Amino acid sequence: MVTSVAKERTVRSEPDYIARAEALAEGFAARAGEHDRIASFPFENFRELSEAGLLSLTVPAAYGGAGAGARYAARVLGIVGKACASTALVLSMHYINHLVMARSQIWPVRLSRKLAQETVEGLALINALRVEPELGSPARGGLPATIARRTETGWRLSGHKIYSTGSPILKWYLVWARTDEAEPRVGQFLVPAGLPGTRIVETWDHHGLRASGSHDVIFDDVVIPLDAEVDVRKPADWRAPDPAQATVHTIFVAAIYDGIARAARDWLVTFLKTRVPANLGAPLASLPRAQEILGGIEARLAVNARLIDSFASDFDDGLPLSAIESNIVKLTVTNNAVAAVEDALSLTSNHGLSRKNPLERHYRDVLCGRVHTPQDDTTKIIAGRSALGV
């Protein structure tokens, strides 16, 4: 078995992608506030990520990518998430799909190779479009209203997807739909962006992650080839989650929200060192209360770092990981991140909530972790049922 350390060395033998991410992060952070303010999509960030070879980070080396595993990708996402959470969210979905493709026995080789090569050669991002107005997230069960009708020449796809993260820049949609067969099957269909009948409706006007371009995408009798069927099964066959997808999803989502909390922590440290109230005559950093709260933030972030790194390393090493444990990691890291930013706000009074400072944006962004699938109630119920054997 190849260990995560050996895999890390393999990636490190290539250009240093961590250093590349850190170099880009400064520009991402400088632009993040304006993109958030007007909810504009950061196209320039993805152009720079592509030029730096970071879009193909999780593409297999055999196809020209870096062949990075979950641990290395999570580190990059943490760096990008600290600078611009919206950019990191779009990037994480792209990374997840390529990691799953690389490990999948189901993905048609022709399609996975095509998408990999396009990502290596240019701007070719992919994301799964799953959520619908009536259904909500399919993670909670139910059949999608999006329908794929089989004809002699191809599938004809019709439906309405919401929260389609990265929609302004995606080249490929992995659409969750059901067939019109007598006994419907459910699964994923690969759809190129921009086909006739496809329309993006700019509905995204959110409290947090405002630059993520998570708009609605509508499909009106869109024609796709018969071999665009990626993984379509009986509904009952989807009850057990894909362990690989569940694991990398939770690790990458956790890394993003941890990155947001670290950005808040860094801003807080500067604020405490430089803010000198007239009645105190010394920086706020001199107060034991400030030191204690900041120490609590450090403790939460230290736990997060260990959880993300060790769990990602276990995944890369091929150790058996349960979806329950994956979800608990996401729950713990995101709640630690939210609490860290809330603690930062408790020390900054009106300054922390002022739009001229980034802390209020970090707070809005980190709160999205509570609604990001898997949600806390689902994680706790499943874990509780497992413990009870019911």
TrEMBL record:
The keyword Flavoprotein applies. The keyword Transmembrane does not apply. CDD domains: ACAD. InterPro entries: Acyl-CoA_DH_C, Acyl-CoA_Oxase/DH_mid-dom, Acyl-CoA_Oxase/DH_mid-dom_sf, AcylCo_DH-like_C, AcylCoA_DH/ox_N, AcylCoA_DH/ox_N_sf, AcylCoA_DH/oxidase_NM_dom_sf, Mito_Isobutyryl-CoADH. It comes from the Bacteria. It comes from Bradyrhizobium stylosanthis. Residues 253-373 form the Acyl-CoA dehydrogenase C-terminal domain. Pfam families: Acyl-CoA_dh_2 (PF08028), Acyl-CoA_dh_M (PF02770), Acyl-CoA_dh_N (PF02771). One of its GO terms (molecular function) is oxidoreductase activity, acting on the CH-CH group of donors. Residues 24-94 form the Acyl-CoA dehydrogenase/oxidase N-terminal domain. This is Alkylation response protein AidB-like acyl-CoA dehydrogenase. Keywords: Flavoprotein, Oxidoreductase. Residues 132-222 form the Acyl-CoA oxidase/dehydrogenase middle domain. The lineage of its organism: Bacteria, Pseudomonadati, Pseudomonadota, Alphaproteobacteria, Hyphomicrobiales.
